[in-house]
Design a protein that fits this description.
The protein has 194 residues and is of the alpha+beta class. It has a single domain, classed as Hypothetical Protein Pfu-838710-001. The protein is 25% helix and 44% strand. The protein is built from 5 helices and 10 strands; from the N terminus they run E-H-E-E-E-E-E-H-E-H-E-E-E-H-H. The protein has an 8-stranded antiparallel beta barrel, surrounded by 4 helices. Strands 6-7 form a two-stranded antiparallel ribbon. It is elongated, with a radius of gyration of 17 Å.
Length: 194
């Protein structure tokens, strides 16, 4: 069920990257909205999301300097079968629940599987991404909403880590920490729960 090659990524959230954004916007950009439901675990850094009628799971394979290499390990179409539910819990380092159905619609999955698991939180994430292809990498600037809270992000991803690192240097972003979407969502959840 592994469906994508590993990708090296770097991402930042917040602001303070105006000059990098100006340089990126000088390239041809494609833009598009998307919506996803992210499933965040207290115990795991796995990237689990429901998007475009699929359950998609990515895991962090390795790090190299500021970069992270992520790989898809599961893509399961809706309705989600009980085997995929159990596999998801494995990637989230949780004991799988007893499943009462062979398949789950989105509503059933969120209400019968995610909601009862106290260490899981579902987060609605919408974004409008502006993406350029530069040196073989996808570079994006996105306006994101996390359960309605606006965030801004800039990301670089590609199969060649040297190209991703070269873009970090070119855009003068080497001093900023890499913060992936899962870590950013956990930070946002911690802020909103205070």
């Amino acid at each position: 069920m592994a469906t994508a090659d590993p990708v090296w990524e770097w991402r930042t959230f917040g602001g303070g990257f105006d000059e990098a954004e100006r340089k990126i916007r000088a390239y041809p950009l494609s833009a598009g909205p998307s919506r996803a439901t992210h499933i965040v675990s207290d115990l795991s850094g796995a990237d689990v999301r429901l998007v475009d009628g699929e359950l998609r799971i990515r895991v962090l394979r390795q790090t190299s300097g500021p970069l992270e290499q992520w790989k898809h390990v599961l893509r399961a179409p809706m309705p989600i079968d009980d085997v995929s539910v159990r596999r998801m819990f494995g990637y989230l380092d949780l004991r799988p629940p007893m499943t009462a159905r062979e398949t789950y619609t989105l509503h059933q999955f969120l209400n019968e599987i995610v909601l009862p698991a106290h260490s899981l939180t579902s987060v609605q994430v919408g974004q409008i991404r502006h993406v350029a292809t530069i040196w073989g990498c996808n570079v994006d600037i996105a306006e994101v909403t996390c359960d309605g809270t606006p965030l801004k992000t800039l990301g670089i991803e590609g199969e060649d880590p040297s190209a991703v690192n070269a873009l970090l240097v070119s855009f003068d972003l080497t001093g900023r920490p890499n913060l992936n979407i899962v870590a950013a969502l956990k930070q946002q959840l911690a802020v909103t729960s205070r």
